[in-house]
Amino acid sequence: MNVLLTLSTILSLAPLVQPKLQIDADIPGGNIVVDKIKGDDVYLHQDLRDTAGDWFYWHFRVRGAHGRTLTFHFTKSNPIGVRGPAVSVDGGKSWRWLGAQAVRGPSFHFDFPKDADDVRFCFAFPYVGENLHAFLKRHAKDPHLKVETLCKSKKGRDIDLLLLGRLDGKAKHRVALTCRHHACEMMASYVLEGTIDAVLANTEEGRWLRDNVEFFIVPMVDKDGVEDGDQGKNRKPRDPNRDYEGESIYPAQKAIRERLPKWSEGKLRFAMDMHCPAIRGEHNETIYFVGIPDEKKWEEMGRFSAILEKVQKGPLVYSSKSNLPYGKGWNTKANYQQGKPFSRWASELPGVLTATTIEVAYANANGRPVTDESARALGQDLARALRGYLVGLE
Questions:
Q1: Which of 73, 217, 255, 284 is deepest in the core (most CB within 10 A)?
Q2: Residue 285 to residue 366: CA distance in whole angstroms
Q3: Any idea where the domains of the chain sit in the sequence?
Q4: What confidence score (pLDDT) does residue 133 get?
């Protein structure tokens, strides 16, 4: 009887036992430093490690918070975007914007579901190597996609090179796309997914692109930074997108400079580097192309922009009025003192008609939410515009 009473007492008290609260960045792309936890208030900040100055990327996991309401206070700066943090209650499988209503200054609160064992928060929707490999697995049997290793990263990771479209060497046109020169700029990866999907789709645009174009795509230039959860932007001693002048210090940039000119054979017509801008503000809440000093090539980019405006179908609306010509805003000579970016370097390759950078807002593009799905739709629009642009060359 005493044993039964003891067990009964333990069982009755079990619901009162709170699991230990755990907050960490031990996940792919994780980034956080916890300063202290005081009751239901968590004080933390983004890890800037090798970053010059401030930046805003963070991504962390919370366990043991079942049924609690916690408030997270950022202590170094305000790195919360205009739609609040992105949140996942299923261990990172799916994401949504928490919303600005949960935010007050550099803090946000969250009501944890009672059954949520692994809740994650991030500045935007994370995209790491496992996302890329899951995407490529869906297309593994497609003969129009070939996955190679461009090179090894400094930490020994494979940096993927995707060859896409017409792969028999007889393509009329060649196109180069790069992404994640800055590790934290994850929403651009969803755009790239959309473009690849569009090229492989059984549509008029897809069939034309597969018949006439070969793509050279590096989806994660800074693979180490993506996996380790680095900011990437303004990394010391050199920003990864300023490594196309002099001797490259990063393996991927060195390999791109060696392989892309040989691959292009003078047929490279269009080169685009895919990025996300800063955290908030008028020009950072839109979609725009960044100009290069070559005025003739920038005029060609204007032709592409006009085509994109006409053919776009997705929920994220692009307007050429948002473009940033060379010499305007931050796009000036002073911003390139550290070195040459990919788009400037690619614009100098034989046969290239235009080269640019696209900046895709992290959360809010002209008042519309940027999500994984809306970003993929933008990527499909870019493929549609690319087809129209290249057709015009024939």
A1: 217
A2: 6
A3: 15-122, 129-391
A4: 97
Q: What is the pLDDT of residue 18?
A: 63
Q: How many CB atoms lie within 10 A of CB 326?
A: 17
Closest C-alpha among 384, 383, 379 to residue 127 = 379
Q: What is the mean pLDDT of the chain?
A: 95
d(CA 160, CA 150): 6
pLDDT value at residue 5: 47
Beta pairing partners, 60: 121
- The residues pairing with 24 across neighbouring beta strands, listed in sequence order, are 61
Can you give the pLDDT at residue 70?
98
Residue 232 amino acid letter: G
Give the architecture-level CATH label for domain 129-391.
3-Layer(aba) Sandwich (3.40)
- Residue positions counted in the chain: 394
Which DSSP helix (H) or strand (E) runs through 109? strand 107-111
Which tokens belong to 233?
Answer: 């932007």
Cβ atoms 346, 271 nearer than 8 A: yes
Domain 15-122 adopts which CATH fold? Immunoglobulin-like (2.60.40)
Query: What is the average pLDDT across 83-89?
Result: 98
pLDDT value for 16 = 52
In one letter, which amino acid is 390? L
Would you say 188 and 180 are in contact if contact means Cβ atoms under 8 Å apart?
yes
pLDDT for residue 179? 98
Question: What is the pLDDT confidence band of residue 38, given thresholds at 50, 70 and 90?
Answer: very high
* Cα separation, 92 vs 82, whole angstroms: 21
Query: Would you tell me how many other CB atoms lie within 10 Å of the CB of residue 348?
Result: 14
What is the rounded CA–CA span in Å between residue 62 and residue 91?
10
Query: How do 158-165 and 213-218 pair as beta strands?
Result: antiparallel
Pull the structure tokens for residue 184: 């934290």
